[in-house]
Each structure stands twice: as structure tokens, then as C-alpha cells.
Amino acid sequence: MLSDQERVVVLPAGRGPVELPRSAVQVMRRVPPRVVRPTSSVDDMVRLTSRGWPGTEVVRMGGWSLHAGGGYSRRANSCHPTGDAERPLDEALDGLSASYRHRGLRPCLQVAARDLTGDEPGALLDAALAARGWHTATPSSVMTVDLRAAPSDPPTPLEWSTTPGDIWLGVDPSQHPDRVEVLASADAHYSTWLTGGRAVAAGRMAITDDWAGLSCLVVDPALRRNGHGRALTIAMMARARELGARWAYLQVADENPRAQRLYESLGFRVHHRYHYRELVS
Ligand SMILES: CC(C)(COP(=O)(O)OP(=O)(O)OC[C@H]1O[C@@H](n2cnc3c(N)ncnc32)[C@H](O)[C@@H]1OP(=O)(O)O)[C@@H](O)C(=O)NCCC(=O)NCCS
């Protein structure tokens, strides 16, 4: 909430700012920050995960946030439609389509629900997008874990940095001109597992409030299925606890069952599901 002599601006969760004349306000009370927990709503969790990977631009449309990052990752180049767009759906979709096209990007929303075939707001939005010809992409899950229940840390020779250096970037050689800017769009810790001076595995961890958001876990293809992925994830969870996080989340695609198995074996459970809806033509 912001205030001056004449007006008060309130920022309700899931909506854009609301401005009131000061004379209309009788009582003001400081509200503690909302704590997001593994039992919190899908919208709360989407807002949290967005902060760990926001992209280089975030534009508000009511409660919806439009993320852009030069096209690197759908997560950073999609609208996250939490709360209310505060305009009719077709107007909101036209607005976001124009905004993405203006940036040379494909119009895209990340649609999330516990059950995307049910009647939650995310599922109803999904059905409305399907009816308008928006195509699905990358069905995925957000998984969470309570770090107090995490396995203990085996000794793992990790190096940590708060920037993605060349060695870290080299473990996953995917090239994109906006990769570094999108990674750096949230404060994060970068872990690199070095063996004999060579990087064999890497990961990223964004700390947001009480949460650690794990991403970019990758093991050298020649060394997979040797326990590096498990040991690195456990070490990252231990580091997250040291940094004060209570819970961790990550996002994993349905087409990656080996990573899902790894995360399930470490106690991660599905919080909600999401996929993208894109306007292809
Ligand atoms: C996912 C990934 C990080 C796993 O790393 P890894 O070092 O091969 O994994 P580990 O050897 O530690 O295996 C841990 C568990 O993962 C699962 N797993 C890993 N590879 C698997 C495979 N090829 N088939 C089935 N399960 C597999 C198993 O449950 C395994 O436990 P187990 O060996 O006791 O059965 C690695 O495959 C990778 O870099 N993939 C490409 C990038 C990626 O998908 N990252 C995750 C993004 S969310």
C-alpha cells in the first residue's frame, strides 16, 4: 500500500492497483506479507514461481502478468494469468497478443490448475482458449518439497556463484542470445560440480521468500545415470536450507519422466499442473 496526503493506492493480490481518496479510508492496518506454503492456492504458487524466473520485462494487465525475455524459455515469454485481468476475456487476449507480437514473440499463456480438466478458474480459462484455437505446449508439473524432510547432504564438490559464469553455462551448451539476461532476471545461486577441473553437472536456485526454486539441473550426457543428478539436487536442497528456505519447488515437463522419478524419490510432490496455450497463426 502507498499513500500520500490525498490518495491511497492499494495493491490487492491478484488485481492491479486500486486508488482511493484518502478521505474514504477510516482505518489503516499493516498486513504481514502473505506466506506461501505448499498448501497455498495455484495462483499464489504461480506468482511465487514467476518471481524466480520472471524474464527481462513484466507488464501487468490487472492480476495477469505478461512476461517477456527475448524468446528464451516459454516460462519467461508467456502471460501468467493469475487473478482477474479486469477486462473481458477477448479484450485481454487481444491486448496480450498485440503485446507479444509487438516484441516479435508468439502470444502465449501459462495455464495452471490442480486439474486442468476440472472447473477451477485455470481449467475454465484453458477450455476458453481451446475453443478459440490456442494450441497446447509443454504439459508440466510444479512440484514442491518440505526441506526439513530432505535427505542429508553427501559430500559433493560444488562451486557456488551468484552469476552464471562460462563454466556453468558450458554444462548445458544450449545457445540463445537472451539466455544470460533471463537467468539473471532474478537473484539466484548457481552450482557447478567440478571433477578434475571439468564441470560435470550444474543447477540454478532462486531464493524467493521462504522458497528455493530449483531449475536448470543438467548432468553431462556422458556421465548420466551415475548418481550426479541425485547428489547435486540433494546438495542444492541442503544449501537452500542454509540460506533459510523452508520449501523448494521446481518445474518439470511431462516428457521428462526420468527427472520426475528423481524428484519424486527426493520427496517432491505435484502441487499443480500447467501447460502453455499459444496462438500459432
Ligand atoms: C535428469 C538428469 C539431471 C538426471 O541426472 P543423472 O545424473 O542421470 O541422475 P542420477 O544418476 O542421479 O539418477 C537419479 C534417479 O533419476 C532417475 N533416472 C535418471 N536417469 C534415468 C533414466 N535414464 N531412466 C530412468 N530413470 C532415470 C532414476 O530414478 C534415478 O534413480 P535410480 O538410479 O536409483 O533408479 C539428467 O538426465 C539430465 O541432465 N537430463 C537433461 C536435463 C534435464 O532434463 N534436467 C531436468 C530438468 S527438470
From TrEMBL:
UniProtKB keywords: Acyltransferase, Transferase
Chain ranges passing through the membrane: none
Annotated GO MF terms? acyltransferase activity, transferring groups other than amino-acyl groups
The stretch of residues making up the signal peptide is: none
| Matches recorded under InterPro entries | Acyl_CoA_acyltransferase (IPR016181), Bact_Acetyltransf (IPR050832), GNAT_dom (IPR000182), Rv0428c-like_C (IPR056935)
Any Pfam family: Rv0428c_C
Domain N-acetyltransferase residues, every copy:
145-281
Q: Which PANTHER family match?
A: AMINOALKYLPHOSPHONATE N-ACETYLTRANSFERASE-RELATED-RELATED (PTHR43877)
Record's protein name: Acetyltransferase (GNAT) family protein
Taxonomy-wise, where does this protein's organism fall, top ranks first?
Bacteria, Bacillati, Actinomycetota, Actinomycetes, Propionibacteriales
